[in-house]
Amino acid sequence: MRGSKTDLAQADCAIARSLSIIGDWWSLLIIRDALGGSQRFSEFQKNIGLAKNILSSRLRKLVQSEIFTIEDDHSSPSVHRYVLTGRGKQLAVVMLALWQWGEDNCFPGKLDYGLADEASGKMLARMELETADGRRIDPHDLRMVVKMKRK
């Protein structure tokens, strides 16, 4: 059937299940803007330029998936805010990885700005694959293993 998507929500893969929640570009751009401080529907709509019906649908899914929670906006009783949850804030790591990949592969040596710590102004470190003891590894050295179950 044309236009239908495979449901990844029950897949036995952490990447596939993650994509079932945040796997479309609009959701990632909404999360990007939220990490940058946007919280109101109108802010997302203005910044991304997304049609209101699509934005509404994506925000609803992100709320249902507990990426955002809805809170009242005390400055305007008819408006509410979309606030990132702990789950949503964890996506900053994913967004940083995408940013750094994009810097290297879409703007090699051409991007005039980057991501920095707001408090110190220092640029963020490059993300690297590391073992739990801090040893850097190559992507070819990755393999899937069964984790020890916690009691």
What does this entry look like structurally?
The chain has a single domain (14-141), classed as Arc Repressor Mutant, subunit A. The protein is built from five helices and two strands, in the order H-H-H-H-E-E-H. With 151 residues, it is mainly alpha-helical.
Gross CATH architecture: Orthogonal Bundle
Shape: globular
Query: How many distinct domains?
Result: 1
User: Treating each run of at least 4 consecutive H or I residues as one helix, how many helices?
Assistant: 5
CATH fold descriptor: Arc Repressor Mutant, subunit A
SSE succession: HHHHEEH
Helix percent reads: 40-55%
What is the average per-residue confidence, as pLDDT, rounded to a whole number?
91
The Rg value, from CA coordinates, equals 18 Å
Beta-strand content estimate: 5-15%
Beta strand count: 2
CATH class category: Mainly Alpha
Question: What is the distance, rounded to the nearest whole angstrom, between the alpha carbons of the first and last residues?
Answer: 45 Å
Q: Strand count, sense and closure of the main sheet?
A: 2 strands, antiparallel
Major sheet: arrangement of strands: 1-2
Based on helices, strands and strand pairing, what is the structural class? Answer: mainly alpha
* CATH homology superfamily name: Winged helix-like DNA-binding domain superfamily/Winged helix DNA-binding domain
Q: Unreliable runs, pLDDT <50, ≥5 residues?
A: none
Blueprint of the fold:
Elements (H helix, E strand, L loop, with lengths): L13 H9 L2 H11 L5 H8 L3 H13 L3 E5 L7 E5 L1 H20 L46
Antiparallel strand pairs: 1-2
Helix pairs in contact: 2-5
